[in-house]
Amino acid sequence: MSRRKDNKGRVLRTGESQRKDLIYQYRYTDALGNRKCIYASDLKTLREKEDELQRSLEDGLDYAGGEITVYELLQRYLSLKCGVRYNTKVGYGFVMNIVQKEPFGARKIRDIKVSDAQRWMIKLQKEGKGYSTLTSIRGVVKPAFQMAYNEEVVRRNPFDFKLTDVVVNDSQKRISLTEKQQKVWMNFIREDKSYTKYYDEFVVLLGTGMRVSEFCGLTLQDLDFQNRRIRVDHQLVRERGGKYYVEKTKTECGCRFIPMTEEVFQSLQNLLANRKRLKNEVIIDGYSGFLLLDKNDHPKVALHIENEMRWAMKKYRKLYPDAPLPHITPHVFRHTFCTNMANAGMDIKALQYVMGHSDASITLNVYTHASYDHAAEQMAKLVDFPGSSDRQERKMSG
């Protein structure tokens, strides 16, 4: 049987042909049984397209049959996540590194049962992985398997279970500084010769509840001193490689105005007065005139302020070992601000707006920390129980 040849006498493979206009084509059947063609002006290019097509078809067939591994499933799922934030990409990479090293990641997805997924979570926690890490892993693996389930590749999602039914939530609760702790820390910063230069930064963070990346993203145009408010509609981020970029706030609800208290107003004025005058302002994604600058005249980022607090905390603990404070970070300031406002009686919807939360339940359940003293004070106002009036009178006379 003679083989089909092109106009140069070269033998063509099965499915290949050359049309009268000398264009090469390859006919094939896709996974749904439909006949299709690919074209090229020369045989070499056509065969490169054939090889790529074959790899794609094999991958599709393996996926459809549940033959790919857990790690390959995650690769497939994440390849569809376009336009995600830098920090989200970093989180995906963190999860993929863990899964790649795990024997579980090499197993075929069709073989994974719910009990297998649960046992893997238990194994990871026994090996030292924290609850937050397990949450991050499950946050990628569960939707990846859900994709496979929706496409009828697996019979059910093996990660569709409540995590706390399987592993212990050993994550540390978010802390909020007490009024006394706030005074001790801020007085230390204000009086210390080395760290007093950061006092105004800390006042603004503690007095506004801004995310530290939002604070670093503030430009001079965002400060409305006449109406005493701060516009927050973006945040500044720096990648590990050193590249700066501006991105939207964490949620759409993150775009907001924050009122300036008198203390915040004065600290912002101080920061502005002490800011170095630059001949050429740095421009990042169209933004310029950043309020906070580092020693190299570049905008400060979250790591700068986190380090300021860490170094100051180290010195405080050395000087005052008998008066310990919780570990203080910019996010602790955010929790503290939210708690202070809630304890002061701020309406929850108004507080949700100021915090930039997408849901009031986050404001209620995650960030506010009630205290006994505040609870007792509120009960004294609402309920007439023995001794309540006496305490109120003593408080007023004192």
Automatic annotation (TrEMBL):
Domain Tyr recombinase: 172-380
GO biological process, one term: DNA recombination
Keyword DNA-binding: yes
GO molecular function: DNA binding; integrase activity
Chain ranges of the Core-binding (CB) domain: 68-149
Gene3D superfamilies linked: 1.10.150.130, Classic Zinc Finger, Intergrase catalytic core
InterPro entries: CB, DNA-bd_dom_sf, DNA_brk_join_enz, Integrase-like_cat_sf, Integrase_catalytic, Integrase_recombinase_N, Integrase_Tn916-type_DNA-bd_N, Tyrosine_recombinase_XerCD
Keywords, alphabetical: DNA recombination, DNA-binding
Xref: PROSITE patterns: CB, TYR_RECOMBINASE
Family of this protein: Belongs to the 'phage' integrase family.
UniProt-recorded name of the protein: Site-specific integrase
